[in-house]
Amino acid sequence: MNTATISNVQEVNFDGLVGPTHNYSGLAVGNVASMSHGGLVSSPKEGALQGLLKMKSLMDAGYAQGVLPPQQRPDIGALRDLGFSGSNREVLACAAKEAPQLLRAVCSASSMWTANAGTITPSMDSPDSRVHFTPANLQSSFHRYLEPQTTGRVLQAIFRDERHFAHHPVLPATPAFSDEGAANHTRLCGEYGEPGVHLFVYGRQAFGDVRSGEREPKRYPARQTLEASQAVARQHGLTASQTVFAQQHPNAIDAGVFHNDVIAVGNGPVLLYHEMAFLDEEGTLDELRYKMATPLIPVRVPVEAVSMEDAVASYLFNSQLLSNPDGTMTLVVPGECQEREAVWRTIQDYLLAGNNPISEVMVKDVKQSMRNGGGPACLRLRVALSEAERAALTGRVLLTDALYDDLTAWVNRHYRDRLAPDDLADPQLAEESLVALDELTQLLKIGPVYPFQLG
Ligand code: SUG
Predict the structure, then answer these.
(1) Chain mean pLDDT for the chain
(2) Residue 267: beta bridge partners?
(3) What is the pLDDT of residue 211?
(4) Thinking of the domain 10-454, which architecture would CATH place it in?
(5) Which residues are catalytic?
(6) Which neighbouring-strand residues pair with 225?
(7) From ligand 1's centre to the CA of 115, what distance in Å?
(8) What pLDDT, in 10s, does the model give residues 268-306?
(9) Best substitution site from 378, 419, 423 to test ligand 1's pocket, by max atoms within 8 Å of Cβ?
(10) Ligand 1 site, residue 449, Cβ cutoff 6 A
(11) What is the pTM (predicted TM-score) of this model?
């Protein structure tokens, strides 16, 4: 059923709600912010409210905004799978004593970064004219490997209507198919309803060329493989003429760029990127130009303007680039961009003043998430949907003033103001979280999605 026309397709940004166990445990190797903030006291309440305010301000500015629920944490089932037994309280107490690193992992609220929830192909580009979904396996780290099952259930609950939506299995959770979802995928196009070209960015190749290892990062892991990106493209029915596979620059990964969306962001025909983003910059742009139906608008930021250190610390490239009805675009940057002079100057003097559609900057405070390496773009999953596809969504997941008010009240009712790493063993926290999440699925009207609801 092809319901998409050029004019009725909108990009909906589905932001992940920050969960009640949001904390700083320094779990993510290669993610400079996460590694340097481990051990700090977090504020789950402030984090969730910051996320909701970002959503609300973008909704108020006229952008379509959706919301995705957090996951059940602590994941006591994962601790049981690892041999802990007894009551929930006993499992938590034992893990806290014997394997505190495992307890921290099963408490991570990392599902807030929905750019890693999965990869989406909109109906305009798929052979059966349905929207295609593949949850990311996130097998690079244990705390994120715990996400895909519930992610799959959440996506299937919301995008339930089989006439419009198709769901694929998570790729095998093994290093060869290491997949981090939309954070390494950008769809470039004219209008959203026009055909797009899919840029998949990978960090390493698992099979084949033995010399490819020489071009891999030395310090930090490359999370996405070419083989994973190719498999997702295959699942979604994308052809060679619709796809470009580009290797991320290994030096960027070694500087803390663990996903492509930390160094590049695309929207419509615009690709905003740092010169260190791709190993073969010219080849990547040439292939995009060749395959795209509309002229590519590359906006290249040179290292002289923004150093790698500034790029990683400010998350300039983890901005959201949003289309306005008059053809201009708005760049939604984290507050940290204002704190780095070179970055702020580049935004004002180069991006806004340059010959490109970016005409406005909006600054958002998402500091609680930023300290774990998650900026505005990490917090959202982009899904381009036709009017009929939006109407076919299940649940109350598109933000309205009423939903914003309900979610804000829900956070204020259930979330803690502060959470220190030692608090993660508190059995009360686990119980509070379940009560909160049960209420949330009712509020969002998505039905049971959590292990504790499924029995
Ligand atoms: O996978 N941080 C996440 C941040 C993900 C950002 N997403 C995108 N770039 N799209 C990660 O590294 C830190 C959790 C902790 O340390 O507790 C963490 O998992």
Answers:
(1) 97
(2) 270
(3) 66
(4) 5-stranded Propeller (3.75)
(5) 180, 259, 378
(6) 204
(7) 10
(8) 999 999 999 999 999 999 999 999 999 999 999 999 999
(9) 378
(10) no
(11) 0.97
